[in-house]
Amino acid sequence: MASDRVLSSRAVEILGGHSKCDLAFPMKAAVPPAQAIQRLRPPQPRAAVRSSGREACGFHRTRWPWRSWKRSKNGRRIEEKRIPVGRKNSFVKHVRGDSMATSPPSSPPCLTIDSNVLIAICSKEAGRHAVAHAELTSYATRGYEFYAPGSIVGECLYVSCRKLEVDRSITAAEHAAAVADLSTYLRMILPPPKGEASLVTRAEQIRSGFGCSRSADGLFIALAEELTASRTTELLTFDTDLPNQARRNAPTVSVRVMPTVVASALTAATPPPMILPPSPPTP
Q1: CA–CA–CA angle 45, 50, 55 (5° rounding)
Q2: Are residues 86 and 186 in the same domain?
Q3: Using N-to-C axis directions, what is the helix angle for 215-228 and 151-165, rounded to 10°?
Q4: Which residue of 178, 197, 205, 235 is surrounded by the most CB atoms within 10 Å?
Q5: pTM
Q6: Has residue 245 been placed in a domain?
C-alpha cells in the first residue's frame, strides 16, 4: 500500500504537480504508469474540418488546440474558430468563404523604356525632354513598372559622350549632370525578369531582315514581348522605325512613338529702321 501511495504521488508530479481528480484508489489501478507518462506527449494536430449542425459556420480543430470561447454583444457564448498557421501557439482567424486560399494580387502593367527616352531626359534634349518627362510621370502615376535591358546603360553613356566630345552640344558640367541623372533613373528601372540571356536568341530573330544597327533594338522588343506574355506592356520610344520592326517580327508588342516637338524656325521679320524726314527749318 505504501508503494501504491508513492506511485500515486509520483503520477501527480508527472501530471504537473496537481491532480485533476481525487484518487480514491491506487494510481496503478486507475491509470497505468505508462499511460500517465504518455499523456505528457502533445497530441498531434489534425486536419481542419468544417463544422455543421448548430455550430457557427467555419473551421475548427477536432482535438487540439482546445476550443476557446468568447461572448458576443448579446451575451451569448460563441465558439471562436481558429486554424494553426505554423508554430504550435500561432493562430489566425479563418476568413469566411469556401476556399481558404487567397487570390493572388494583380500584376501591375509594364513599360519598356527605349534608350532614346532616357537620353532625352538626362541630356535635356530640346523638343524631347519635356515630352519624355511628362510621359514617364504619367506612366508612373498609373502604376506602371519600368523595365529595360542592360544595354541601355552603354547606349546612354555613349550618346552623352558624343554630345560632349564630338558634337560639342553640351558642356562638361551638363555632361556630369547627365551622368548623375542617368544613375538616378536607372534605380527606378528593373532588369529583365528572366535575365539578359533569355533575350539574346529572340533579339537576333527580331533583328533578321534589318541592318546590324537594329540589333540593340531587338533586345528592347524581345523584352517587351517577354513581358507581354504575362502582363500589359508598352514599349516607349522616339524611334519612328521601331514599330515597323516590331510589327514584322514581334506583332504582339505594342509600341508607342512619342512626337518630337520642333521649335518653329520662323522668326518675325525685323522691320527696317524708319527714316524720319528732316525737320523743317525754324524761322
Answers
A1: 110
A2: no
A3: 140
A4: 235
A5: 0.57
A6: yes
